[in-house]
Amino acid sequence: MVKKTILILNILFIAVISFAQNIPQHISYTRIYDFVDELANDGFFELNSAVKPYSRLFITEKLLESKRYEEKLNERQKRELYFFLEDYAPEQDRLPEFEFPLIENENFRLDLYPPIFNYKDTLFRARIQPILGMNIYSNKQGRITQRWFGIDFQSMIGKNLSIYGSLRDISFSGGRLSEPSYLTNFPGFEYKEPSDFSDSRGGITYGWKWGSIGLIKDNIVWGDNYNGSNILSGRVPSFPMINFSVKPACWFEMNYIHGWLVSNVVDSSHYYVENGVKKWYRNHNKFIAANIFTLTPFRNFNFSFGNSIIYAENNVQPGYLLPVAFYKSIDHTMTKGIATENQNSQMFFNISSRNIRHLHLFSSVFIDEMKFSRFKPSSAEKNPISLKLGAKVNNFLIDNTNFTAEYTRTNIINYKHSIDVLTWASNDYNLGHYLGDNTQEIYLSAGYKPMRGLDINLSYLNAKHGNEYNYLRRENNQAVINDIISQPSPGDVIWKNQTLGLKLVYELFNNGYAVINVENSNIQGFDAQSEPITGERRMTAKEVLNYYTPVFLQGKNTTLTVGFSLGF
């Protein structure tokens, strides 16, 4: 009887908070995403993991749903559950109960450990948290120090409205680890010289029981993955967007964005004039519209599909503001007879299955350009597509363990376009997989979580990049592009990365990390012969390394990373 009462109360509580706000939990808080994924893989609830970030409210609902099955959780999972629930206290309409309060009353609370301020009354809830962190990377090449500081603010007004924002000032000393051409999984930034940058994220959202809409500037990920999505990876600098999501039935969900990207392509007709003499040129406009629909035909199985378009008109086109649309068709209607080349459209699919307890199977496909005739075995031409296959198993036979295997293959000129302003990129960073086109990756990992807050992960990466091809096309002549996509992929490999890593992460308190990471890597470049189609000279081995890899990581290295972070 007691268990039934608790179950009913939990269900009622979840129903009540379902009318509340929609503040996204940033994707950099990897431990909460790993924990939600683990609980879903263990079968405690259903999860559409193809679209991230999750809202803080959504995470709270999933944690409370797991609490109903507390007797089935192992001891470490129980401790993690209660640990995370305290961080999501505002979403439960209460103040947190951390151990070291400095000031507290019924409306507000200032804590020392973690350092965070929370406020709550009948109308308004808010939390303010400082952001602080540092990573020190060291190997035989030298040392790079990354520092950041800032502040994070979240507020909820009434039952439906949310306003949030954060600002981080970040600097590197000793060199950069991310550039648009670097094949690393580090987040991308638009630098202020020499190696400083700032990252401002935030938004205003209106949420209701089965949906939300908002104007936000944030990072998003589409496509199941554990080592970089091949649809939207979230690696590019955050960009402003209209975000619209609905889930009117348990078997259907739709997510839509319309975003303002950064083209970094100069528009010679658009400039400011300083002192009547000097011209300051501006970039071309660049936009993205994308939708993804998820169907759940039966429990724990999700099939997602969607399409997108990159367009570079002077103004936002109303047709691309339609959440339910096939954008390539709209593009044909709007540009036929006006332009010799349409805008850049894409399609993508994602399948996720958690039908076997403890096991997550997934696959995603990104299609940049497709002709069915190219799928024939006799066809020399290959469609520019990216394919990802993967699996993760949690707590099978041995509690607190996990094993992951992931394979990604991306064909030649996928993500690229013959018109620079229409590439699948923002700030010159690829929106999709961090390795770009003409690549292949195998990722394996084994993890162990011996206690609350401590994650130990052993990983192996084998990544390859083939020859670099420009997307060449002549008007009324497809010969060049056909020759390019007839080349084997990845073909002649000019860059390799084999890395064995051991990473220890300990979350001392909510949003407070200590990190130790040791990676033994061998990153090599190889000479490439002349371009077989145009005859242009290709890069030497050294040029390949300098283009794809920061000097700090080139060759054979054992790199030690030590760091801490507070806030996200």
Summarize the structure.
This protein is mostly beta strands.
CATH architecture label name: Beta Barrel
Main sheet summary? 18 strands, antiparallel, barrel
Structural class of the helix and strand makeup? mainly beta
**CATH fold call:** Porin
The count of helical stretches stands at 7
**Rg measurement, Å:** 24 Å
Mean pLDDT: 91
CATH classification class: Mainly Beta
Strand portion: over 45%
What tags apply to this protein structure?
single chain; 568 residues; mainly beta; Porin; 18-stranded antiparallel β-barrel; two-stranded antiparallel ribbon
Describe, in plain words, how this protein is organized in 3D:
The protein has helices spanning 2-17, 30-41, 56-67, 75-87, 327-335, 479-484, 541-548, and strands spanning 51-52, 100-104, 108-113, 115-120, 124-139, 142-157, 161-173, 196-208, 211-218, 221-222, 239-249, 252-260, 266-274, 278-283, 287-298, 301-311, 344-353, 359-367, 385-394, 401-410, 425-426, 429-430, 439-451, 454-466, 493-509, 512-525, 555-566. The protein has an 18-stranded antiparallel β-barrel. It has a two-stranded antiparallel sheet with strand order 1-10. The chain has a two-stranded antiparallel ribbon with strand order 13-14. It has 7 helices and 27 strands. It has 568 residues and is mainly β. The longest helix is centred in the first third of the chain and has 16 residues, at 2-17. A hairpin with a 3-residue loop joins strand 2 (100-104) and strand 3 (108-113). The protein is globular, with a radius of gyration of 24 Å. Helix 1 packs antiparallel against helix 3 (56-67) and helix 3 (56-67) packs antiparallel against helix 4 (75-87).
